[in-house]
Design brief:
Lipocalin, alpha+beta, 3 domains, eight-stranded antiparallel barrel, 14 helices, 31 strands, single chain, disordered N terminus
Length: 579
């Protein structure tokens, strides 16, 4: 097997010409197209910046592979197609394949109760099945969110046992299994536990034996040992801070399933080819992987098993992005064109999903033109060129919006005549794509605005990969008195998190203090409900019949309904109403 060959050209990356197995697996991209592709990554194409590795695949061949930027700023190592990246949630498709291989061999069934294999979990009123986990319809709270709320730092060492213990303490689900879709890393982590208990091998060992080795993916593995040395691995980085420099952002978590695959754009070509050859899994397993899930009411999802099934500019797509520590990833496939784009980055704000689509815009321009503008407008990704929203219209959209289902709060503000969305602890710029439609800059999400009409208040709808579809209604935030705020101050404890929060009244405002969370001012939304814009969660306080505060429930994106009881020195623990 030949080593990769590159034409370095300084920091201009590389065109891979080998190392991908027998047969003619490479093809030259025309210079005119290559220059346009390179322009997409121009801001990363420098020695003093982290960046991305790119692979473009067509008909089982690597038609272009390049590295842009630095894999390691300390050592001055450039990114190449052989650079290894943590691909975050793009890993989920490998976990799904492992589960489906076990199902094919009769070792488990997709409609089995998860507690058959993970009896540590509570017996919820409606059983959670393996299929629910695969499709993100389980309602199981996201364990990464739980760990963050409990004050865990992602740079700490964390194991399967830590995550499983936390999930075993959760007394409720976010929703009844199968009734809703909500992205949850817990589901795929639990699938890794199921693989281990059914096969007798860790997910790392099982995937190595049944996926990576058979496909020749010699630089790929599930990373479950934080001390393991990985040759050619890129370091993850955060964007420049106030001093203008990048910061290292790495994680020592050892859980797998929801993420943890380390791989290269060269190896991902071999995985991409498998969706056409069926060498691993065969046609039936591969068809199951891309079969969209359904809700109990028959609603068909755009999520299959570890893969989003959608369209882009009129062409069908199968894709999944990834985000973990300072790494970002995207593997975007166009099945009808037998073409794919892999983009792996080591900078937290690099948006490889958007970069991959821009590469597709260049490489598949003729196919998009053939499909025509009508088809492009028929899906939810319309042409964004030339859309403008007048500043006065933007100002009418500004305000505070609340999701009545989970208490989530979004703020729309106007800065420099442009809208900005504050949601989930993030401040995101919006770009208009129509009179009432916006896309989030550098993120895979959209917002739709509905004006007030006939007594109905203004509304917005936010949706995106990994976010779901969330509807918000405009509110006028409550204005509680200082005396009312004083009633809420105190010490609170969550048995499910094993963590305590302190809420203090400081300068006529409530302020939340918790281990390893930012000190957060709590802003009122509706009566007895407050949001932390900095931390991205809301608290809804509960009272007994006498009006005394007994505790609060916390909602934080992928985790809902966490109960914190108010600590009282002279009484036994208080239980939440209705439990």
């Amino acid at each position: 097997m030949r080593s990769p060959v590159w034409s370095m050209g300084g920091w201009l990356g590389a065109l891979a010409l080998g190392s991908l197995g027998p047969g003619p697996l490479t093809a030259q991209l025309p210079d005119s197209i290559a220059r346009k592709v390179d322009a997409v990554f121009a801001r990363f194409d420098r020695a003093d910046s982290p960046g991305c590795a790119l692979g473009i695949y067509r008909n089982d061949r690597m038609v272009y592979a390049r590295g842009y930027g630095s894999a390691n700023l300390e050592l001055g190592v450039p990114i190449s197609p052989a650079t290894v990246f943590d691909i975050g949630s793009t890993s989920k498709q490998f976990t799904a394949m492992s589960i489906l291989l076990l199902a094919r061999d009769g070792k488990l069934a997709l409609d089995d109760d998860v507690r058959r294999y993970v009896p540590e979990l509570p017996a919820y009123p409606t059983p959670v099945t393996i299929r629910h986990l695969l499709h993100h319809t389980s309602g199981v709270r996201d364990y990464l969110t739980l760990m963050e709320l409990a004050g865990e730092r992602f740079e700490n060492v964390s194991t399967d046992a830590d995550a499983l213990d936390l999930l075993a303490r959760q007394r409720a689900l976010d929703f009844s299994p199968g009734s809703e879709w909500e992205y949850s890393n817990s589901g795929f982590f639990l699938l890794s536990i199921i693989v281990k208990r059914v096969s007798g091998q860790s997910l790392r060992q099982f995937a190595q034996a049944h996926i990576f080795d058979p496909l020749g993916m010699t630089h790929s593995h599930f990373h479950d040992d934080h001390q393991m040395i990985i040759p050619n691995r890129a370091t993850g980085y955060d964007p420049p801070d106030s001093t203008g420099g990048f910061r290292i952002d790495m994680s020592n978590f050892e859980q797998t399933g929801d993420g943890a695959v380390n791989t290269t754009v060269e190896d991902l070509l071999l995985w991409d080819r498998n969706f056409y050859s069926g060498r691993v899994g065969g046609t039936e397993v591969l068809a199951e992987m891309v079969k969209p899930g359904t809700l109990n009411d028959g609603t068909v999802l755009d999520y299959a098993s570890g893969l989003f099934v959608d369209h882009y500019r009129g062409l069908p797509t199968v894709a999944h992005g990834g985000s973990w520590a300072g790494y970002r990833a995207e593997l975007l496939r166009f099945p009808s064109e037998h073409a794919s784009v892999a983009c792996l980055c080591n900078l937290a704000r690099s948006n490889p999903s958007g970069l991959a689509r821009k590469v597709a815009d260049v490489y598949l321009a003729d196919r998009f033109a053939a499909v025509g503008p009508g088809a492009a407008a028929s899906n939810h990704r319309p042409d964004t060129s030339g859309a403008v929203v007048p500043p006065e219209t933007s100002r009418t959209m500004a305000g505070t919006y609340r999701d009545s289902r989970n208490g989530g709060v979004a703020h729309l503000t106007v800065a420099n005549d442009s809208l900005r969305l504050q949601y989930g602890g993030y401040s995101l710029d919006l770009r208009p794509v129509g009179p009432a439609d916006f896309e989030v800059v550098d993120a895979e999400a959209r917002m739709h605005f509905v004006a007030a009409s006939g007594g109905t208040p203004r509304r917005i709808r936010i949706n995106g990969s990994g976010l779901g579809d969330r509807a918000f209604t405009a509110i006028a935030p409550a204005t509680p008195s200082r005396a009312a705020l004083a009633q809420l101050a105190g010490e609170y404890f969550s048995p499910e998190l094993g963590a305590g929060y302190r809420i203090a009244l400081e300068s006529d405002s409530l302020v939340l203090h918790a281990r390893n969370l930012p000190v957060s001012a709590l802003g009122p939304t509706i009566r007895d409900e407050f949001e932390s814009a900095a931390a991205g969660f809301t608290l809804h306080f509960s009272r007994d019949r006498a009006g005394r505060v007994t505790g609060f429930t916390l909602a934080a994106g992928r985790t809902q309904g966490l109960w914190f009881e108010r600590r009282r020195s002279t009484s036994s623990p208080v239980r939440p109403p209705g439990r």
